[in-house]
Amino acid sequence: MLIILKHGAGQVEIETIVAEIQRVGYRPHVSQGENTTLVGAIGKGPTPELLEHFRALPEVAEVIPISKPYKLASLEVQPKPSVISWPTGSTGGNAFMVAAGPCGVESREQILTAARFVKRHGAQMLRGGAFKPRTSPYSYQGMGREGLELLVEARAETGLPIVTEVLSPEQVELVAHHADMLQIGARNAQNFALLQAVGETNKPVMLKRGMSMTLEEFLMSAEYVLSRGNLKVILVERGIRTFEKATRFTLDVSAVPVLKSWTHLPVWIDPSHAAGKRDYVTALALAGVAAGADGIIVETHPEPEKALSDAAQQLHEHEFALLMKKVRAILPAVGKQMVGGLELA
C-alpha cells in the first residue's frame, strides 16, 4: 500500500509512520517530494482493516492499495523518476548517460586504450567484462580477478566509473569491491539467488532483460534486487529472441516507453547485443534515445577484428565518435542532457 502523508509532514511524522509500518510486519519505503511525502508499505496484500487503520492515523492524508506485483519498482510507490549519479554523470529524469568499452578485458594495453578514447569522445562510464558468460565453454571466459584490477587501473587514470558483470553470488563481494556498478546479464536475469545477493550491496545494479522475458517478468526480477534494500537499479533492453535472424536479437524499442509508464527506474538500451553487427549499432542506439531511454551501453574496441569475444558487434573508435555526435544531436529533442563526461584534452 502507498501512504500519502499530510502536507507539511516532517521527520517526526515520517518516523512515526515508518515505525507503525514495521510494527504490523511490512517494510517501509520513503519517497520525499517538494510538497508531498509518500511512504510505501511493502508486503502481502493489505486487508481492508489495515487500510482503515492507517487512514485513521493523524499524519496520514490517504492510503492507496498497490495493485502491481512489482511493488518497489512501481510508479505507484515512487511517482517521480529515480536518478542515479556518479561524479561523471547521472541517469534518470532528464539526465542521460553513456557507458562504453570493450566486450571483454583482454590486456592492459587494450582496456587502457579503450578507456582513453571512450572518455575522449564523451562517455561517462567504462564497461568491460572481467568474467564472461559464454554460450560455448570453449570460448573466451575473461581474465577474472586480473581483469578487475585492470579496470580499476583504467578508472584511476581516466576517472571513469566502471561497470562489469558478476556471474554468481560467490563473486558478488569480489566484483563489488572493484566496480562502481554491477551488471547482471541476460542469462542471469532470473538467477534469483544472484539478484538477492547484489540487492544486499550498496552498489548500483545494471539489470539486462532476459532474451525471452516479458516486461512484467523483467520488473519482477528487478523487484528481487529492490526488495533486499538496494533501490539503485537500471533496466536495460538488449534485444529479445524472435523468429527474425537478420540481427542477433530483436531490439524491443517499445520496451522503453512501456517501462517508463510502469516504473520509476532508469531504462537503458544495449544496441550492441541486439544488433550483433556493428553496421546496425548506431541506428539502434539512436532509436533507443529517440524513444526516451535514459542511457545506452555500447561495445567499442581499439581493434574490433582482433577481439576475443563479440568481434562483429564492437565499434571502431571513429564509429563510436560518430555515434556520440549523433546522440548529442538527438538529446535536446527528447528533453534530455548529458551531465559530466568531460572530454580529455
CATH topology of the largest domain: TIM Barrel
N to C succession of SSEs: EHEEHEEEEHEHEHEHEHEHEHHEHE
What's the main sheet like?
Answer: 8 strands, parallel, barrel
Number of beta-strand segments:
15
Strand content: 15-25%
> What overall form do the CA principal axes indicate?
elongated
Helix count from the secondary structure assignment? 11
How far apart are the first and last residues' alpha carbons, in Å? 52 Å
Helicity level: 25-40%
Structural class: alpha/beta
Mean pLDDT: 93
For the CA atoms, what is the radius of gyration? Answer: 21 Å
What are the low-pLDDT stretches, counting only 5+ consecutive residues below 50?
341-345
Please state how the strands of the largest beta sheet are arranged side by side: 7-8-9-10-11-12-13-14
CATH architecture type of the largest domain: Alpha-Beta Barrel
Tally of distinct domains:
2
CATH superfamily caption of the largest domain: Aldolase class I
Keywords: Transferase
Protein name: Phospho-2-dehydro-3-deoxyheptonate aldolase
Domain DAHP synthase ferredoxin-like: 1-68
Pfam families: DAHP_snth_FXD (PF18152), DAHP_synth_1 (PF00793)
In short:
This protein is an alpha/beta fold.
Overview of the structural elements:
Pfam families: DAHP_snth_FXD, DAHP_synth_1. Residues 1-68 form the DAHP synthase ferredoxin-like domain. Keywords: Transferase. The protein has helices at residues 11-23, 48-55, 108-120, 145-158, 172-178, 192-199, 215-226, 255-262, 271-275, 278-290, 317-330, and strands spanning 2-5, 27-32, 37-42, 60-64, 84-86, 89-91, 95-101, 125-127, 162-165, 181-184, 205-208, 233-237, 267-269, 295-299, 337-338. With 345 residues, it is of the alpha/beta class. The protein has two domains: 2-64, Alpha-Beta Plaits (2-Layer Sandwich); 84-338, Aldolase class I (TIM Barrel), CATH 3.20.20. The protein has an eight-stranded parallel beta barrel, surrounded by seven helices. A four-stranded antiparallel β-sheet has the order 2-3-1-4. Helix 3 (108-120) links the parallel strand 7 and strand 8 (125-127). Helix 6 packs across helix 7 and helix 10 (278-290) packs parallel to helix 11 (317-330). It is elongated, with a radius of gyration of 21 Å.
